[in-house]
């Protein structure tokens, strides 16, 4: 009887085990499905939470942008910081916060954000431009130039591409302030090529070329402006000044006369025009000048040079005579004076070059000792430069 019970129990156990084995795949599938449902649910909830955080952050960001455009920098700072609570690593949030801080004058805090952003994206144009401005403000010229260069050649969003030439203009202004004229000229040449024939831009570039003392490119830029507006007073004045500095006095006279008509009260233009007239009429070596007029000009120039060295004492020894002895300009001028008359020049035309050589030497030396002259002496100095090496 006992054996039969044991056999029955064993048979039941085997049956239950076989049933379990048959049900095991079903249980596994059910558990797997439940796990998947749980994971999906968690993912959906997590994404919904993240989307909600992003939406809140975006709302704060949009408010900050509106305040930034309205130049309400304090409100913009609070808005962007609130946005960053919901997305701490967002690049745009941090960049706009930095710009708002700059607007408030808190450049130290802004710089910390910008340097972090630069390390993430060193080719970002906006970041480099703001870092350049901060460095320039602090007097860190070398860093400012480097960041400005980065900004000029950086990646800019399509809607901000117009800020690239602005970055180059700021770089040029900085280079001019530190008297780096050669570098400024190179940047201006590149800028002039990129802006095209826009009259206003070319006029501005011409003004900058004048400040950089690149008068050839300045004149070219002003001429582009004058092709579109030949009565533009500022471009006429700029072209006249550039031509004057290049020693192209007939061209300078043309532009300066037009500029003076447009703006009669401009003292600089009037003074340059007066000097230009004097240079054109006091040069004894200009072509097709009557002999009598040439001789009269030489006599007047010789007398003016004599007055110049009397008012500006020169070193005692300034020339060498045929015997090799040192003589002063005063002695040389006094020795030659009796011969420099209209009659003497007519009888001995070779004296023209000899007299004018002394005049030019006197004007050059006195300009070194006593500074740039005015009036007749300035005209004679400019004429001497026209004939250097001739």
C-alpha-based Rg, rounded: 41 Å
Low-confidence stretches: 321-326
Question: Main sheet?
Answer: 2 strands, antiparallel
Instruction: Kindly state the percentage of residues in helix.
Output: over 70%
Give the strand line-up of the largest sheet: 1-2
DSSP summary: helix tally? 18
Distance between the termini: 145 Å
Strand residue content: under 5%
Helix-strand string: HHHHHHHHHHHHHHEEHHHH
Mean pLDDT: 87
What characteristic shape results from the CA principal axes? rod-shaped
Summarize the structure.
The chain has 390 residues and is mostly helical.
Write up this protein.
- This protein has 390 residues and is an all-alpha fold.
- Among the domains are: 197-282, Serine Threonine Protein Phosphatase 5, Tetratricopeptide repeat (Alpha Horseshoe); 291-386, no CATH class.
- It has 18 helices and two strands.
- It has helices at residues 2-69, 73-86, 91-104, 107-120, 125-138, 141-152, 163-177, 181-195, 199-211, 215-228, 233-245, 249-262, 267-282, 291-311, 329-336, 342-347, 351-370, 375-386, and strands at residues 319-320, 326-327.
- It has a two-stranded antiparallel ribbon.
- A hairpin with a 5-residue loop joins β1 and β2 (326-327).
- The longest helix is centred in the N-terminal third of the chain and has 68 residues, at 2-69.
- It is rod-shaped and about 165 Å long.
- It starts with a helix and ends with a helix.
- Mean pLDDT is 87; it is low at 321-326.
